[in-house]
Specification:
The protein is built from 27 helices and 17 strands. It is α/β, with parallel strands linked by helices. The protein folds into 4 domains: 2-113 and 126-150 and 163-209, no CATH class; 218-307, Arc Repressor Mutant, subunit A, CATH 1.10.10; 347-421 and 532-693, P-loop containing nucleotide triphosphate hydrolases (Rossmann fold, 3-Layer(aba) Sandwich), CATH 3.40.50; 433-526, Helicase, Ruva Protein, domain 3 (Orthogonal Bundle), CATH 1.10.8. Strands 8-7-17-16-15-9-14-13-10-12-11 form an 11-stranded mixed sheet, with helices on both faces. Strands 1-5-6-4 form a 4-stranded antiparallel sheet. β2 and β3 form a beta hairpin. α2 crosses α4 (79-95) and α4 (79-95) runs parallel beside α10 (202-209). The longest helix has 22 residues, at 552-573.
């Protein structure tokens, strides 16, 4: 823009360098944005730091002094200053578009939608009319717009958790230069400073309004409007019906809907029945219970939705029981007539979200019996796994669960790895010492991110441990392979000895290696010979509990070596056509690395009567080989776009169908026997307990 170039030249004539010119332009943008508040301009919080720069703007005719409030001057832009600042802000907004999107993506989708739909509305009264202003920077929170006041959403705006999050959004915009913090002022005798506000320039508002809201709250807000209607009635003194009808119409509601809700509340003794009396349509008989009912029915669900939280289950309200008694009875009768078992091994997963038709998992009819369950935290993943383990257990198929957080003790017997379970990775398991050396070193390299030199030193130490135990590495030494293997701790001894004898460079490599592997040597899991009763494990459901292990790498290493021992045991038992065991691997992405036993298990386990159920928050971490060997896929909500795209490709659906699943326990399911996927509500574990005894 020619005028901007001319302005820069004018500033250079003042002898300003590049940095000082930028400060002048920043001061101009701050004044431009802050002038949206106050009768004679707002006062940017840090404007005193720009005293010299503001003086230059005044000399150039781009800004003028407004009133003085408690010794502070308020400034506004001249017409020419407005034009310059607007051009600067448009350029600034364009440069920061990606950063703004990244900022908004850090918050729950519905909170961003709430903020964009309502907090970006301009104020429509008084000195702030037409401006987008936030008071979230300080606890003081006047009503910014009719869009909020009219819907009663100020209750949610004032909620601390929501206002704190909105404050974070505003602070982020301030840090990006799209908003400015400024003091409001009032025109009283002498004037006085008011609360600190955050205000956006029109150019920033225009840009944000072009961004599609990530989630639609219209339906929830519409139902919430009934809360506003009843809350207004609650705070009045015997409101007349004509006045009440005006409020109902103002909120876009129908009197019949309000009457129906009030009549239901009357059945629980909260109100009288709704009448068409001109004096008062109904009486509130128990104000405390009335308020609690409104909060539990309207405020808390919407608040939780905005914050991306899950409401804890509450005991059924007598009001809700009265509301849905017949419908619920009919629903239960319908579900109870659906058989839990349709064939030798068909398990009810749940019911179609739209069709309500039962959906069954028949692992023996799929190309393989393995299943994948993916979803973000809180989507219902653990409950789904528990439901499957419970149903398999009822059908006499036990499960071995790799339990990283001790979450499965209610469906399986716990086996705490700190309670006497030991594994010796150096046991040969029908392999040569040399093969075992490369296998163990490769596993530890993948888990602990070792370098080439570190892995080489580790291999030398493992080989030395075998040799010290009298076990030769070559085929000519096969007779020695039946000797007791060295203890895993011998690797540490060999490394420490090598460190003492090595040159300084190699000694440093070994020292770093010992430091990285210290937990695996110090914790007792790998301290002795393998002591696990696998015969018992494959006959009952067992959860290998690893919560008490101190590091994530140690948990992964324990899982890896345990699976290899289990596979060796199953291999010795021999092949089996029917399923004898399911291996449930929670957080399966932990094993999504090269040389992991996962790929081999998925390819070969079926031949030996073993099925695998994988669970993960990070489906895109799995290899194509893993996905190709899974017969059933269950995708709960995957909010990350990359994960949603990855799963959509596997499920033959659109990414948004996976990314924007709204309800806990709802999932997109696809079987290998079907080209299409379907959306179902998984029947939760707690609903199944007791049902399988029929």
């Amino acid at each position: 823009m020619a005028k901007l170039d001319a302005l820069v030249k004018d500033l250079e004539s003042f002898g300003l360098d590049h940095n000082k010119i930028e400060r002048v332009l920043t001061a101009l943008k701050k004044i431009y944005a802050a002038q949206a508040i106050g009768y004679f301009g707002g006062i940017p919080i840090d404007i005193e730091e720009y005293g010299a720069e503001v003086g230059i703007l005044v000399k150039l005719g781009l800004a003028s002094r407004g009133g003085v409030v408690e010794g502070r001057s308020a400034f506004t832009c001249t017409v020419e200053g407005d034009e310059m600042a607007s051009a600067l802000l448009k350029e600034h907004v364009a440069k920061n578009e990606k950063k703004v999107l990244e900022l908004l993506n850090r918050f729950p989708r519905r909170l961003v939608a709430f903020w964009m739909n309502f907090c970006l509305e301009p104020v429509n009264y008084g000195k702030f009319k037409g401006k987008v202003v936030s008071w979230a920077v300080r606890p003081y929170f006047p009503e910014p717009s009719y869009g909020i006041v009219g819907l009663g959403l100020s209750e949610l705006i004032k909620d601390k958790a929501i206002s704190d999050k909105i404050l974070e959004v505003w602070n982020g915009l301030v840090s990006l230069g799209l908003a400015v913090e400024a003091y409001d002022n009032v025109s009283t005798r002498g004037g006085e400073l008011r609360d600190l506000c955050a205000v956006m320039a029109p150019e920033a508002v225009e840009f944000l309004r072009k961004i599609p809201a990530p989630s639609d709250l219209k339906n929830e807000i519409k139902s919430y409007a009934i809360f506003s209607v009843l809350k207004r009635y609650r705070t009045s003194e015997r409101m007349r019906r004509d006045e009440f009808l005006g409020i109902i119409a103002q909120h876009g509601q129908q009197e019949a809907d309000v009457k129906a809700l009030v009549d239901k509340m009357s059945m629980a003794g909260l109100t009288s029945r709704y009448t068409y009396s001109r004096v008062a349509p109904f009486l509130i008989l128990d104000a405390n219970k009335f308020d609690r009912f409104l909060d539990e029915t309207f405020v808390e669900p919407l608040r939780a939705s905005i914050l991306g939280l899950e409401l804890a289950p509450v005991p059924p309200s007598p009001i809700l029981e009265a509301k849905a008694e017949k419908e619920e009875k009919k629903r239960i009768e319908t579900i109870e007539t659906v058989p839990e078992v349709v064939s030798d091994l068909s398990i009810l997963l749940g019911f179609g979200v739209e069709s309500s038709q039962p959906n069954y998992w028949s692992p023996l009819k799929e190309k393989n019996p393995h299943a994948l369950v993916v979803g973000t935290t809180g989507s219902g993943k653990t409950e789904t796994l528990k439901a499957l383990v419970h149903e398999l257990k009822f059908r006499k198929i036990p499960s071995l669960i790799l339990d990283f957080h001790d979450e499965y003790s209610d469906v399986a017997e716990g086996m705490n790895v700190r309670g006497g379970v030991t594994i010796n990775p150096l046991e040969l398991l029908e392999r040569s010492p040399k093969d075992t050396t490369y296998e163990v070193s490769s596993i530890l390299r993948a888990i602990y991110s070792l370098g080439d030199q570190q892995e080489a030193e580790l291999r030398k130490a493992i080989k030395k441990s075998y040799e010290d135990a009298g076990i030769g590495l070559e085929d000519k030494d096969k007779q020695s392979w039946s000797s007791p293997p060295p203890a895993f701790q011998e690797i540490k001894t060999a490394l420490e000895k090598a460190k003492e004898e090595a040159d300084s460079r190699t000694s440093q490599v070994i020292a770093t290696l010992l430091n990285r592997l210290e937990p695996i040597f110090d914790i007792g899991v790998f301290s002795g010979e393998t002591r696990i009763d696998f015969e018992s494990v494959v006959q009952k459901s067992v959860a290998l509990q690893m919560k008490d292990l101190p590091t994530e790498e140690l948990k992964t290493a324990t899982s890896d070596f345990f699976l290899r021992k289990l596979w060796n045991y199953v291999y010795k038992i021999g092949r089996l056509k029917d399923l004898r065991l399911y291996c449930v691997i929670d957080e399966g992405h932990r094993l999504a690395y090269k040389e992991s036993p996962l790929d081999h298990l998925l390819r070969e386990a079926r031949k030996y009567g073993v099925g695998v159920i994988l669970s993960s928050q990070k489906p895109s971490d799995f290899t194509e080989n893993v996905m190709a060997n899974v017969g059933t896929m269950i995708a709960l909500q995957c909010p990350l776009e990359s994960d949603a795209r990855f799963m959509a490709k596997q499920l033959n659906c659109e990414p948004h169908e996976v990314q924007f699943i709204e309800k806990r326990g709802e999932a997109i399911v696809k079987f290998s026997t079907s080209k299409d996927s379907s959306k179902i509500r998984i029947k939760p574990y707690l609903e199944r307990v007791g049902a399988t005894s029929r």
